[in-house]
Hints:
Its cofactor is Mg(2+). With 487 residues, this protein is of the alpha+beta class. The longest helix has 33 residues, at 98-130. The chain folds into three domains: 1-213; 226-331, no CATH class; 336-486, Reverse transcriptase/Diguanylate cyclase domain (Alpha-Beta Plaits). The protein has a five-stranded mixed sheet with strand order 4-5-3-6-7, sandwiched between helices. It has a two-stranded antiparallel ribbon with strand order 1-2. The model has no long low-confidence stretch (mean pLDDT 87). α19 (462-478) links the parallel β6 and β7 (484-486). The chain has 19 helices and seven strands. Guanosine-5'-triphosphate is lined by residues 335, 368-374, 376, 381, 384-385, 388, 410-411, 477, 481.
Amino acid sequence: MSDLSIQFSIRDKLTAIQSYVLKHGLVQAALFIAAWLIVFGSGALLDVVNYASLWFPAAGLTFAVLVVVGWRSILPLMFCAVVGTFWTDSIYGLNTPPDELFVTGILFGVGHIASYYIGARLLLYISDTSLQNLPRLATCFLILSAVCSFLATISVLTALVWSGAIDDGSHVDTWLPFWIGDLAGMAVTAPIFCFIIAKLYPHPKFWIGEHLNQKSTTSFTEFLYKCSLGLGLLLVVMLLASISEAPEAAYAAFFLILPQMWITYTETPLRTSLSLALLSLAIALLVTPFDVMQFALVYQFVICVVAATTLYGLAVPALIADNRALRGMVLKDSLTQTTSRNELINRVEKELKQAQRQKSELCLIVFDLDKFKHINDKFGHVAGDRALISAADCAKDCLRETDILGRFGGDEFVVVLPFTSADAAVLTAERIRLRLTQVTVDHGVTLSGSFGVSAVTGVDSFNRAFERADKALYRAKDLGRNQVCCM
Length: 487
Ligand SMILES: Nc1nc2c(ncn2[C@@H]2O[C@H](COP(=O)(O)OP(=O)(O)OP(=O)(O)O)[C@@H](O)[C@H]2O)c(=O)[nH]1
């Protein structure tokens, strides 16, 4: 099977799964609960102190589902919180009575869900005006991440102390790693979870996929190399911290920002978010085997700082792409894809200076379609537009690589012929004129044009050379059109 047909069959299957999930609310809830518990489990296994993990991606998933799905996700989330509490109890081997665990689970659920629900509502409100402004959206999201994760920390820890799940004094050691773990998990994973959930549960207003859906200009292998560079650097700095046991060595992990920024500026936002999630997960997973848990807080801050910088950087590739598109629009006439008027004048000025310096010959041809208004009036502007495109293509075919063809406005075109004498320019104009008469456009209409040629002298500016060619063009019109005049 060819690569293309494999791609199509995978896409077909994904579309079928997507439409099945979209139709079945219970399947959505079951999928979500399974995903939340897997993500919760991956965080719970990375504890810094009891109840506080180095990185808690479940916070990102809770926030994302509340943003995209809203209040309908509260019940499945509550179920997850209760199951998660029972699971945590079995991980720590605490053997708490089930009724007490149930109450603890409900209290955990209320604190966790309420905190992220407030943030999700606020982000939706803000995204109404900021979705197109990525730096502003990133700022709001980061502030909300810090505030929501702090609220979740305070409310969940208060609930756990109140229910007796943790001692009265131990929340003092727990609150900071708890908060930073939730913050890191949310800042890193919420954007990518929003993207995935919105694919299965399209949100009419909040469609972050507009940003994450951009097409890549680099190969996937190149992206993998960049990711491996980041992971390689992580292994080196962890090894350094493990061998030296010095805090200074742990701080070297902040250098991870460099490969991540390389990815952010050169890859799509989706790939950037994936590499950030991968790097953060790798940091959290490697802390135990490298025996550097004493620097857990440093690594938590590394994840937060890399995530925040990445989120701001997400705007850069979009800005570069917009800039490239705008540049294209400024340099080219959007209809005929010939040189735009402004760019034409710039380039003629340069060619003029060069011709004057080198004492070489330079000519201008100005041509205008005959009775073009008639085509517009009789067959409509779309037919007129197609006639303009055909005329430009026909002229391009008659020119050399070094000649410049531009649209000056309406149905008037300018050709710049460097290193060309007046006689040769007249011959070129004749060639275009003849070819134009052989062009048939919509409704069997044939085209013709009138041409003015001027040879540029040593003291000419663009305007003077253009005026002479334009006068020659009007003489050609006066003499009956479909001919070439020279001045
Ligand atoms: N379809 C289309 N028409 C355009 C565009 N720009 C200008 N025009 C039309 O082009 C026509 C230009 O007509 P003129 O060059 O003044 O006159 P003409 O009918 O060609 O007659 P002569 O030049 O005297 O032979 C006008 O009807 C404009 O509205 C465009 O981008 N698309």
